[in-house]
Automatic annotation (TrEMBL):
Stretches assigned to the EF-hand domain: 20-55, 69-104
Keyword Calcium among record annotations: yes
Biological classification of the source: Eukaryota, Viridiplantae, Streptophyta, Embryophyta, Tracheophyta
Classification via SMART domains: EFh (SM00054)
A molecular function (GO) term: calcium ion binding
Annotated SUPFAM superfamilies: EF-hand
Protein name: EF-hand domain-containing protein
InterPro entries: EF-hand-dom_pair, EF_Hand_1_Ca_BS, EF_hand_dom
Superkingdom of the source species: Eukaryota
Length: 138
């Protein structure tokens, strides 16, 4: 766990650093693709978000939220990644959406630095989604 200060240019330089960015996305994808079939299924993506406790901490969902609403929320996240509606998120889709999210975040942050706490093992995805949340609720 470490704390970093980032702003829009930090995020942009990360996305524009092709080698580093591709490597980070590949690593994140590989760790999420539990059955190693090359695509992220609905449940694999959902498990990823749940394991990171992103829903409850960042989307304002409390423990009493009905299962139906949680499923809808997870479905909308999944649909955003699954561009061709194939029912699975492949590496290319995952990389494209992560890039979209990060670029939107970079625009949203502009030059206002924010402080981020990062968990070492899941740093990349957490960074991306934390940043998105910070933009949505800014
Ligand atoms: Ca899979
Ligand atoms: Ca797809």
């Amino acid at each position: 766990m470490g704390v970093v200060i980032i702003d829009g240019s930090t995020v942009r330089s990360f996305v524009n650093d092709e080698t580093h960015f591709h490597k980070s996305v590949e690593e994140a994808f590989a760790s999420l693709d539990l059955n190693n079939d090359g695509v992220l299924s609905r449940s694999e993506l959902r498990r990823a978000f749940e394991s990171l406790r992103l829903i409850d901490t960042h989307f304002g969902v409390d423990v009493a939220t009905p299962e139906e609403e949680l499923t809808q929320l997870h479905d909308s996240i999944f649909d955003k990644f699954d561009c061709d509606n194939s029912g699975g998120v492949d590496r290319k889709e995952f990389m494209n959406e992560m890039r979209n999210i990060l670029e939107a975040i970079a625009d949203g942050l502009g030059s206002s630095p924010v402080q981020m706490a990062l968990e070492d093992d899941k740093g990349f995805l957490k960074l991306a989604v934390d940043l998105e949340a910070s933009k949505v609720f800014a």
